[in-house]
Predict the 3D structure of the following.
Amino acid sequence: MRISYHPADDLDEMVREVIKKAGMSYIDPDRVLCFRSRGSRSKRVIARCYSLPKIWQMGLNTSAHYIIEVIAERFDRLPHEEKVKVVIHELLHIPKAFGGGLRPHRGYVTNRAVNEIFSRLKSQ
Ligand SMILES: [Zn+2]
């Protein structure tokens, strides 16, 4: 099966909500694009975050953008709360500079950080 990508409006909304409620004001939601993919061969990945590196920004004469891709076969069957956690996880990969880089898991994108933000969201 070939992989296909579909714009994910439901995720756009979730991303906006998380950014707002979690105080991630360094992220421009208009430059975070969400897609749902189908037919991915990877067995364990639920979602991915892509950046547009500086050199591409320069070459294409555009600013930093990020893409969050969720793998439909796995993401869509998660309960709502787990979906929110996945979105938080992917957003944590976006650095404060919002410049085109990605933050690594170690020290930044941890279950602890995700759960902390998630409980902050829930208490609102
Ligand atoms: Zn990750």
The pocket of zinc ion is lined by residues 89, 93, 105, 109 (CB under 6 Å). Residues 16 and 29 are 6 Å apart (CA to CA).
